[in-house]
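User: Let's play a game. I give you a shape written as tokens, and you guess the letters that built it. Ready? Here's round one.
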């Protein structure tokens, strides 16, 4: 089937879905994208984009867009959340470019989403359909039929499920994948740096490792804002589908009892926190979990991961590039193309999921393990923090 006749329908207009549309558009493939929300929106929080991801975004022409809104910190530093001591450092900045051929960026989710949306709109090859919630999907040998909540039916040759952690597309292709609460809660805040005392402002990425909690902060929105996330262990809120809850700052401060004063001061200086329960699925075990005939899953719909390697959006963006590659390969039929996508992506996604989980255990270590972690970090610093197999690309 010639590319111009291939009908690709993407479900979900988050970072994964928009990037799929952008990557397909860059290969001359038109896309229909349905998004359940009536307007495109992203909550106020930050995202780190490592060189493997920035390289792809720059390849789609987003370099100057990133320059305008992202930050490119020179350093990642790891500090003990108890003593405040610097345990290890990884130089980013020019070193990332020299070693991995692309920059290491931090960006507000809303800025990245707006950048992707603007790029998709100026490409002009994607039909964006808001207020269109997927309700039902079926497929036969020739096509997929998609029904939205308003009863409208659409046919496509290929459907990409980019509808996030609670994916409804996934409900039709896998019955063995219900997200479970991880036991971890993320308190998130974005604060204007100008509103913070001088000593609490920062232009680098800092990770604080404690017993049973950790915190990460970095600049976003051209450096004007500081994104702060503190991850603690605790009980799940009642409504697990709603990931953005009002958070009680007193509860957060109680988790940080005994923490270094610089971290306590930062947390005390921020009044408004949002609380996100972190949920996950078992790690991907085979290509069969990503492709089902003419339907494929990508991003959080396929492989949600704990944020401790800062790669959830990154892996969605890599998935998008792989999908555009296979869908634009002329000799591949639709089903074979999605199978190849799944074969290409599943191992790397599984490896990142596993590494992220392991990082969580290390970041929250207690007792003798915490002592060993801090000692190893002080001895090996950069070697432990650098991840060449990841930052070098898939
Ligand atoms: C605390 C925290 C920190 C993080 N930090 C980082 C980081 O530093 N770096 C990084 O790379 N990642 C990070 N992540 C992960 C990242 O945010 C996610 O992996 C990424 O946003 C997933 O994108 P997605 O497009 O797959 O899903 P989503 O962003 O969930 O988008 C899904 C879209 O589908 C739509 N949708 C849902 N159901 C339907 C339906 N039935 N019909 C139509 N549309 C539908 C939704 O409205 C939404 O727009 C972090 C996550 C958390 C929680």
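Assistant: Ready! My guess for every position:
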């Amino acid at each position: 089937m010639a590319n111009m006749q291939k009908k690709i329908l993407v479900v979900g207009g988050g970072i994964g879905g928009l990037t799929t549309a952008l990557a397909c558009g860059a290969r001359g493939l038109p896309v229909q994208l349905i998004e359940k929300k009536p307007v495109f929106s992203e909550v106020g929080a930050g995202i780190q984009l490592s060189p493997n991801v920035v390289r792809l975004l720059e390849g789609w022409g987003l370099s100057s867009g990133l320059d305008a809104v992202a930050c490119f910190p020179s350093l990642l530093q790891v500090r003990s959340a108890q003593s405040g001591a610097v345990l290890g450092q990884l130089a980013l900045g020019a070193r990332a470019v020299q070693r991995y051929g692309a920059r290491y960026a931090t960006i507000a989710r809303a800025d990245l989403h707006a950048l992707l949306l603007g790029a998709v709109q100026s490409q002009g090859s994607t039909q964006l359909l808001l207020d269109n919630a997927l309700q039902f999907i079926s497929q036969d040998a020739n096509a997929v039929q998609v029904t939205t909540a308003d009863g409208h039916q659409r046919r496509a040759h290929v459907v990409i499920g980019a509808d996030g952690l609670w994916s409804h597309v996934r409900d039709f292709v896998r019955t063995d994948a219900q997200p479970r609460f991880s036991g971890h809660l993320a308190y998130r805040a974005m604060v204007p740096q100008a509103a913070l005392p001088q000593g609490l402002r920062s232009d680098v990425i800092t990770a604080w490792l404690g017993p049973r909690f950790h915190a990460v902060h970095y600049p976003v929105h051209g450096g004007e804002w500081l994104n702060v996330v503190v991850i603690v262990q605790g009980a799940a809120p009642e409504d697990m589908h709603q990931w953005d809850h009002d958070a009680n700052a007193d509860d957060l401060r109680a988790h940080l009892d005994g923490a270094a004063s610089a971290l306590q001061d930062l947390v005390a200086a921020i009044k408004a926190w949002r609380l996100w329960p972190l949920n996950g699925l078992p790690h991907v075990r085979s290509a069969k979990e990503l492709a089902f005939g003419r339907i494929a899953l990508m991003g959080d719909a396929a492989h949600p991961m704990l944020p401790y390697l800062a790669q959830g959006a990154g892996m969605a963006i890599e998935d998008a590039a792989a999908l555009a590659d296979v869908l634009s390969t002329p000799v591949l039929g639709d089903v074979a193309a999605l199978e190849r996508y799944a074969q290409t992506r599943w191992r790397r996604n599984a490896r990142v999921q596993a590494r992220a989980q392991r990082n969580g255990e290390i970041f929250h270590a207690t007792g003798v393990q915490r002592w060993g972690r801090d000692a190893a970090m002080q001895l090996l610093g950069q070697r432990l923090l650098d991840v060449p197999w990841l930052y070098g690309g898939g």
